[in-house]
Amino acid sequence: MPPPSLTAANDRVAAAASAANGHAGPDARRRAGKGKKVHPLPADGAAMGDGAGGERLAGGRRPMDWLSPAGVAGILRRHPLPALFACGLLLFMGVEYTIPMVPAAAPPLDLGFHATAAMHAGIAARPWLNSLLAALNTVFVAMQAAYILWAVLAEQRPRAAIATLMMFTCRGLLGCSTQLPLPAEFLGSGMDFPMGNVSFFLFYSGHVAGAVIASIDMRRVGRRRLAVLYDTLNLLQFVRLLACRGHYTIDLAVGVGAGLVFDMLAGWYLDSKNIDSGDNRCCSSCQKALVSQKLTS
Length: 297
Description:
Protein name: AtPDCT1/2 transmembrane domain-containing protein
Domain AtPDCT1/2 transmembrane: 109-267
Number of strands: 0
GO molecular function: diacylglycerol cholinephosphotransferase activity
Keywords: Membrane, Transmembrane, Transmembrane helix
Region (Disordered): 1-54
Helix content: 55-70%
Low-confidence stretches: 41-54
C-alpha cells in the first residue's frame, strides 16, 4: 500500500489532468470559477458582435439599451458630471435661439457689473478707498512676480516663468486683435498696476492668470497653504476688478483658463526638452553647458 503522501500527490496529478481535458469535478470547477465575474449571454444566445444578434457593447448590451430607463439611470449614477454638461448643452442651445442681442448703440451687458453695482457705487463715492484697493492689488501682483522670479532664479524651476511669458505674449496679441470698449464706469487709480493709471484693459486678465500660474506651481511643490492664500487673494482681486470696472467678467473667467492652459503648455515644452519640470533644477541643455564649462576650465 503506497504511503498517504504519494496517494495525495497522485490525486493532485489526476485532478490536474482531468481539468486539462475539460472533465474537472464540481469542486474543481467551483474553485476555478471563484472570483471570476461572468456576464451571462443574452436570451437569444447570440455572441457579442454577432451580426445575427445585432451589434453589442461590452457585457452583451445593445447600444439602444443605454436609452432605456435603467440605462439612463445608470449613466446618471456613474457619470453625473458629463450628464450635467449634457443638460447645459440642451439649455444653452435653447438660449442661443431666444436671447435678445444687445443693440449696437447700447453698452455691453455684463452680469458681473450688475452683481457688483452696490460695491461700485461705494468705491466711486470714496476715491481714497479706490486708491487703497488699487494699491493692495498692486502689492498682490508684485507678490506673484516675486514668487515666479524666485522659482526660476533661486530654485531653478522655470515652468512658471515660461508659462507667464507665454500668457502675457498671447494676452497682448489677443488684446490688440479685438479691442473691447473701456466701460463708461471705469474707476482708474494712479496706484493701480501698471502704475500711473495707464491703460491696462486688454483681453484677458493678466492679473488673474498670473495668480493662477503661481498657485499651480505652489501646489506642484507642496506649498498648499500658500496656494490657498493666493487663491483667496485672487478671488478678492476678481471682485475688485469687477467693482472698479477694470475688466469684463469674461476677461476674468478666461484669465483663470489661461493660467491653467499656459501652465500645461509650459509643462509640454519642458517635457519636449527632456526636463523634469518638478524636481530637476536645470534643463538638459543647461546641464551640458555647465559640464562643458567645467571641462574647459
